[in-house]
Amino acid sequence: MSSSSPPNEPLPLRPRRPPPPDDDEAIMPFLEHLEQLRKVILHSLAAIGIAAIVSWSFTNRVLTWLIAHTTGHAIFTRPEGAFMARFKVSLVLGALIVAPYLFYRIWSFVGPGLLQKEKKIVFPGVLASLVLFYCGLIFSFLVMTPLMVHVLVGFGTTNLTPQTEVQFLLDFVFMGGLASGLIFQLPLFIGFLTWIGILSPKLLFKYWRHSIVAIFIIAAILTPADPISQLVLAAPLLVLYGLSLILASAIHRSRRKARAEREAAAGH
User: Fold this and answer.
1) What secondary structure letter does DSSP report for 198?
2) Which of 245, 244, 216, 209 is nearest to 232 (CA)?
3) Count of CB atoms within 10 A of residue 187's CB?
4) 197 in the Ramachandran plot: left (φ > 0), alpha (ψ -120 to 50) or beta?
């Protein structure tokens, strides 16, 4: 009696792998992004150039104000010195005027590639950074730099009188403004370290005395050797450190609340 063999069962079909992307399809998105980046850079440079040209008519007033609030008098030692000084001022003014537009152009390029969660963090952070940078510039131009120049020039004697070259003066003023704008980023820097888990409000409050000492050491390094300049620079740094503590506490509470909600959702 012959035994019938069981019918052959069809083997399960393996899912087909998607075909590898065509080289042209892989290259085109990269080229499109590169073209967009080129447009962002060109538009930004064009905006700075146009703003610098528009600002040219104000450079004499701005340059006069800067000299009057620092050394009171400046000289130029080359025939093109006055033109180059006004040209430098116009470029800086142009960049400051169109900084919000530059921020918009960069965000329009970077923003679409971010997740919605990342957009909620990056956009307010960059906007706050821009505002803090402007605050640092204003503080430097109105308070810190004039005071530092006054103290430094005061070291002169009867036989040692200052004759400040305008290019050196502008470099000193603009570098001081840049340094002050970067220092004013302290709350965002501490907030970022708190957000990624490196710092915590408990640690910041625990070592607040050490932080105050470090702030006065930084102020002593960045200013001439006189207590008034150190206090003038240390005062906003102390305020910024206080704002950093508040921001770090808010970020820590927000992350702890989000973690508790995730754990509660996972428990259900």
Assistant:
1) S
2) 216
3) 21
4) left
Structure tokens at 136: 């640092």
pTM to 2 decimals? 0.74
pLDDT at 154 over 90: no
- Which long-range contacts link 25-31 to residues 24+ away (Cβ below 8 Å)? none
- Rounded CA gap, 121 and 258, in Å? 15
| Token pair of 177 as six digits | 């403004």
Query: 187: which 2 tokens?
Result: 């709350």
Quote the pLDDT of residue 134: 92
Residue that the structure tokens 């995730």 belong to: 262
Q: What average pLDDT score do residues 213-230 get?
A: 74
DSSP label at residue 75: B
User: Tell me: the pLDDT tens digits for 25-79?
Assistant: 445 566 777 888 888 889 889 999 999 999 999 899 999 999 998 888 899 988 8
- CA distance linking residue 102 with residue 44, whole number of Å: 6
The upper half-sphere exposure of residue 103, i.e. CA atoms within 13 Å in the direction of its Cβ, equals 16
- CA–CA separation, 176 vs 62, rounded Å? 16
Tokens representing 239 are 């305020």
Say what the pLDDT of residue 146 is: 87
